[in-house]
Structure formats: C-alpha cells, structure tokens
# Entry
Amino acid sequence: MIGRGPARGLLFVLVGTGGLFAGCMPSTDVTVTVFAAASLRDAVDLAATAYTASVPGIRFLVSADSSAALRVQIEQGAPADLFLSADAVNPARLVDDGLADGAPIAFASADLAIVVPAGNPAGIGDPMDLARAGTRIIAAGPEVPITAYADRLVAELAGLDGYPVDFAERYAANVHSREDNARAVIAKVELGEGDAGIVYEPDARASSATWTIPLPDGVRIAATYAGVVVRGAGAAEAARAFLAWLAGPDGGSVLAGLGFERAGAVAIPAGALMP
# Structure
C-alpha cells in the first residue's frame, strides 16, 4: 500500500508479511517504522519485501525523504524505529543528541554519477562542461547528503589537469535550482528542467529518461549509507534485526541488484561526522 504523507516529498510504503524464518524474530505481529533516504526508496521497498518473505509477523511502514529532513523530524519527536540515511553524518548526530540506540551501522555504498536529460540537449560532453557558461545544473539543498558528496566530486574534478582553477566556482554559479532530496534532482533532470545533475549511481541506473556522462579515469566518489535504531523505538528489536540483515549478505544481494555495494556492516565511530 503506497500513499502520500502530510509532509512534502514524503512517501509511505507499507510492506506486508509472509513466509517462515528459522531465526531470531518473534511470530507476533510487529510494525517497524523506517525513515529512509529518498535514494533508498526502491531499495528499502525491495529489501523489506524480501525480508518479510522469511520473517513471520513483521510489517514495514517506510517514509522516504531527504536524510536531513528525516533526522529533523526524529529530533522533533516523529515516531520512527529505524533511520536509514544516505550518509554517516545524520545518524551520528542522532547519536550525539542521545536519540539513537547504539552506533550507526554502514550497510551500503553507492558511486556518484553525472546525468543529463535523454538526448543531451545541452551537449554536455564531459564533466568540464558543468562549468561552461549557461549550463543549468540541478542540485539539492545544502543540508541534503548528495550536496556534500557532489561538492567532493567537484573539488576532485577541479584538481585535474586541464580543468580551470575556478572550476568549482563556475559550477556553483551554474546551479539553476536546489531540490528537497536526491530523487527530486534526477526527476527535474529527467523533465529537462536542467541540463545536468550529480546523483547517486543507482538512481541514474534506474532512470530511462537520463544519460550518464562518464567520469575521468581515477575519479570516484562513493556515498556511505548508514542506519541506526532510534532510541525509545517501540519495535527496536525488529528494527535492529532488519538493519543487521540489510548489512549482511542477503540484504547486500538485494541492494546490489539496484547498483549499491555492500559496506560490510561497519560501525561508525562516535564523532565521525564525515559524509
């Protein structure tokens, strides 16, 4: 069952139960409320479907939006059991604020990609054209994780031979709009409302309305996805079990089918506020 929530950009997905599981979850009904980064929307839906095929009596209620927006909602008391972020920063902030039960766990990673509308009407030939005068770049807001990753990619490109010394400044001047989350960035590029955008590789792979501009050899920025159980969660045990499964080989297999890579269930050290 899919429906719109009251907040802008929020998507709610309810995934049902099924199957049998030779393991740790009780057979009583339990609903796990998951706040997930917008770029994880399809991944969490598929992962939850796979998980509920093996675990009896569990359902997932998933809301998807910008990681930063979801963190703020949790800070303001929104009921969530599990927070799955497109970075390590936002889960670590919940830890620092005493709103998390345990350390964040890195469960996946994804490369960044530069996308243009299908047909490439602006004639973007390589990443250097992101600094070309008149190029309209669709980006996200300053608090959205994709923005920090994109800034790192732009900085890496700016250091390459042949790129102008003010590449980053020219790129910033070309930002045409800033969107609420990463999914909204690629949606605008798909519609041709901008000439290019920097997005997550799984979103680029899933889009039939964009083309990907290859990055120079040796240039690679990977986003780290981390999850944390919310302190006081009503379904903390079930949430922790799902996060462990998501970070393991079975969850990793589901995510890999969408273009994510396993992060190896690495715990994020306290105070490690890196994107």
Remarks:
- The radius of gyration is 19 Å.
- Residues 145-158 form the longest helix (14 residues).
- Residues 44 and 117 are 26 Å apart (CA to CA).
- The domain at 2-109+224-267 is CATH 3.40.190.10 (D-Maltodextrin-Binding Protein; domain 2).
